[in-house]
Write a structure and sequence with these properties.
alpha+beta; eight-stranded mixed β-sheet; binds aspartic acid
Length: 306
């Protein structure tokens, strides 16, 4: 399947080594991250090692992204699945997206309350042939496909309850949205992102994460997963913009940096992870911290917080 613009000489080069990048949200170096930084590093390292083993055995990029995001949704330290940020009314609203580069099949979900792993709901939407579904109907589709159901209160941690109470007056906190991008041994890419949104957001607010082309994108040249001030990322159309630049010959790191600069021009901050078919990586962020990790075939995982 060709992506726009038509195939260029670069697209015929051999693909880079199997690679996965993960992030766990761009934001301030909050107290949580200061206290639990080592734990975050260990969790991301473990997730990367498991992903590396999958890639070594020939797994497809989408499957590897799904497993990595699921692992991060299970970790109460991050703002996705269990431990997600709370809305102003104390509820949890989850969103996620996954996109497969080989055919640009994509699924996004928003306004979920009871699906334990929102990334599974995103995959159910992808498989259904729809691209974006919200709320209860998206949940029904996911649950019918075997996704696990949780009560909304099961997602709530003491840490997030305390944050909501501290609100805007409290110290700046790390943000914790999660994402993964992957290049598999067959030269195919995929991207996935999952989030609880922003602490204290009004119920019904949707950020960039589940929106294909804004917070999440994969074609067979580039895969991108974003984190940060979702409104600015949507208005820039960050993920698809980067892919278009790369398709026209701009180096991945330049395109990624320019997209973040544009987010900055709208007073937004954040970060992203991006990977191209030749194995070039970009992990820029304009905040104090963005827990992130890289695994590339033949190397051990490299995880950093700042
Ligand atoms: N981008 C996410 C949103 O706007 C939040 C984040 O990445 O921290 O919902």
């Amino acid at each position: 399947v060709l992506s726009y613009p038509a195939m260029q000489a670069r697209d015929r080069e051999p693909a880079g080594p199997p690679t996965i990048l993960v992030h766990a949200g761009a934001g301030p170096m909050g107290s949580e991250l200061r206290e639990h930084g080592q734990e975050a590093i260990d969790v991301l390292g473990e997730i990367l090692r498991a992903a590396g083993a999958q890639l070594d055995s020939g797994a497809a990029a989408q499957a590897v992204v799904m497993a990595a995001v699921e692992g991060m949704e299970d970790c109460g330290l991050f703002n996705a699945g269990y431990g997600a940020a709370l809305c102003s009314d104390g509820s949890v609203e989850l969103s996620a997206a996954v996109m497969r580069g080989s055919d640009r099949a994509a699924g996004g979900v928003a306004g979920l309350h009871v699906v334990r792993h929102p990334i599974h709901a995103a995959a159910a939407v992808l498989e259904s042939g729809q691209v974006l579904m919200i709320g209860e109907h998206a949940e029904r589709l996911a649950l019918a496909g075997g996704a696990e159901r949780w009560a909304n209160s099961d997602f709530v941690t003491e840490r997030q309850r305390a944050r909501l109470i501290r609100g805007a007056e409290g110290p700046p906190e790390d943000r914790g949205t999660v994402g993964a991008v992957c290049l598999d041994a067959h030269g195919h890419l995929a991207a996935g992102t999952s989030t609880g949104g922003i602490n204290g957001q009004p119920p019904g607010r949707v950020g960039d994460s589940p929106l294909i082309g804004a917070g999440t994108w994969a074609d067979d040249r580039v895969a991108v997963s974003c984190t940060g001030d979702g409104e600015a990322f949507i208005r820039v159309g960050v993920a698809r913009w980067i892919a278009s630049q790369v398709a026209h010959g701009v180096p991945l790191q330049t395109a990624a940096r320019e997209a973040l600069d544009d987010v900055g021009s709208l007073d937004g901050t954040g970060g992203l992870i991006a990977l191209d078919r030749t194995g070039q990586l970009a992990l820029p962020f304009s905040t104090e911290a963005m827990p992130r990790g890289i695994w590339q075939a033949g190397r051990s995982p490299d995880v950093q917080l700042t």
